[in-house]
Amino acid sequence: MSSVYRSSRGRAAIRGWCERRLDGWPVPHERREIATTAGQTHLLIAGRPNTGTALYLPGTNFNAATSLSLAGELASRVRLVVADLPGQPGLSAGDRPGGDRIAAYGAWAGEVVEHVHRSVGSGPLMVVGHSLGAAVALAAPTTNISALAVVNPAGLVRLRVAAPILRSTLAWLVRPGDRTSTGLIRHLVGPGRQPQLDLVQWMTLVARYARPAGAPGPLDSGLLTRWRQTPRVVLSGEHDCFLPPQALGRAVQEQLGVRLGVLPGLGHLSVADDPTGVSDLLAGAFDPHQRSCSRPTPTEGEW
Fold first, then answer.
1. In angstroms, rounded to a whole number, what is the distance separating the alpha carbons of residues 283 and 109?
2. How much is the pLDDT for 269?
3. Residue 126 CA: distances (Å) to CA of 67, 85, 123
4. DSSP 3-state helix, strand, coil percentages of the chain (rounded to 5)?
């Protein structure tokens, strides 16, 4: 195992930022830690009791504290649990799983699902994953999961990294600061959208104090086709710089048996671009009275 943090000082700085964000979140919530085979795992729990439950797995370099806009929207609709991935900067264990990392993350997700099923929510459980979190969700056991939603999902195709994005990423890593963080985030959000100040500050902390890791490549098709028996929905931004909708759409259709729902005007960080709109779509997919997740999702322009 290797730590995501460059130093104990860096770990303290990142944890402190996350704790302050969560302490100031006005939505009533609970925080708890559970033991897993991947290390201590931090859970943020909020939302309506006696409803279905959504478990949200954030993407690379993100966590509950950086996902509060989406969390607030989802918590107004369902019981919500946000899990910080071990080995990502946040409030879970800092060591990355060794060996087959995606298999280890899949087993970890199964443990979290079991805890949520037993100890948090009632009714059906929907797992929602963004980017790396989507790949982790796809690698998880299907047991106890009533529906699956993956947004800007890694794990289906190889990420495309164009030269301008690579240059911005290198500048962000070599010269951590709000200017380089802003430059990188501009690639990740939709055209014309301004990077949010809190995300700029967070990405500066990550570059300064953590060792960011890349997203996984395509998962084994056997892992993916298991989900054909589970209601599922796949969404991604029209302007996702890593996962062009045309390439991703083909993989989604072939592997998961549904059509990709393209989110007009949004980028790779669609959950930050438009948390209300994304939450509306997820809640609609989750509510069996509104739509079935197994129904092929609309193509571009139909939302």
1. 21
2. 97
3. 17, 17, 10
4. 40, 15, 45
